[in-house]
């Protein structure tokens, strides 16, 4: 199962590289965010929901890092700037 987990991680990293290449402008303008817990989840598979506590702990450790706090803040600010593409006229 470890080999499969490794291939899933590699696949998502390759997908990210292709996405950034295609949407470079958004990446450069700080409009693309990917939050990826890189330590503490290596032994937990996608189907192992019973290890929720371990996943939460690893995620908490990831998010307390100041660099991640800054990225989350930037992401929130970016979402706050988003305007609806729908025009709602209630008159």
Automatic annotation (TrEMBL):
Q: What is this protein called?
A: Uncharacterized protein
Name its species: Calycina marina
> What does the organism's lineage look like at the top?
Eukaryota, Fungi, Dikarya, Ascomycota, Pezizomycotina
């Amino acid at each position: 199962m470890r080999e499969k987990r490794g291939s899933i991680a590699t696949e998502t990293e390759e997908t990210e590289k292709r996405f950034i290449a295609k949407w470079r402008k958004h990446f450069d303008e700080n409009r693309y965010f990917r939050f990826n817990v890189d330590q503490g989840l290596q032994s937990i598979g996608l189907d192992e929901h019973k290890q929720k506590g371990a996943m939460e702990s690893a995620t908490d450790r990831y998010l307390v890092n100041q660099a991640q706090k800054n990225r989350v803040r930037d992401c929130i600010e970016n979402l706050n700037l988003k305007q609806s593409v729908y025009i709602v006229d209630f008159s």
